Structure to design on (182 residues):
């Protein structure tokens, strides 16, 4: 059974609004307190609420002006920034960089532990954005994205999947041709 947002909030003594804000920070598409959460998202949320992730992040980035004042032994107020100085986003720690919110279909792939590179390979091979579960099942049977272009009785495996042929029949065809172990 999936855990809902309000149950996690109650467990940690937090408001549901705070928990939803944390979920948005970790790029989980949640809109209400009654939204059921996938186990992977729950694990990431618990780590965030318990502060385990913040321990993995580098400590607060020090201000260069403070560092210069300490090095030269002069008051900070006597220092001026260099002309044209501006912060570089590449120097910001990951928590301070603007984060892109993932779309629901992207989250579905991540929940199934399929990273962006593998997801892009499946999409390039002809699966749709919402076919994450199909990609996971194919992977379980040892079928990778490159195998979707292999012809099976005149049509590629990918064309057979798009045509609605059941995955079990496609696996059987791969086994008949000897391209997939029993």
């Amino acid at each position: 059974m999936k855990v809902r947002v309000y149950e996690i909030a109650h467990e940690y003594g937090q408001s549901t609004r705070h928990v939803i804000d944390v979920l948005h920070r970790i790029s989980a598409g949640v809109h209400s307190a009654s939204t059921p959460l996938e186990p992977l998202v729950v694990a990431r949320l618990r780590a965030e609420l318990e502060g385990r992730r913040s321990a993995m992040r580098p400590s607060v980035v020090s201000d260069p002006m403070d560092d210069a004042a300490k090095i030269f032994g002069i008051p900070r107020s006597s220092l001026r920034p260099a002309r044209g100085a501006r912060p570089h986003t590449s120097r910001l720690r990951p928590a301070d960089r603007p984060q892109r919110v993932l779309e629901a279909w992207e989250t579905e792939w991540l929940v199934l532990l399929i990273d962006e590179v593998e997801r892009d390979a499946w999409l390039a091979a002809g699966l749709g954005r919402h076919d994450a579960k199909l990609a996971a099942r194919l992977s379980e049977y040892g079928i990778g994205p490159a195998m979707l272009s292999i012809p099976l009785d005149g049509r590629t495996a990918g064309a057979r999947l798009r045509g609605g042929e059941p995955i079990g029949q496609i696996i059987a065809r791969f086994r008949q041709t000897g391209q997939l172990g029993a």
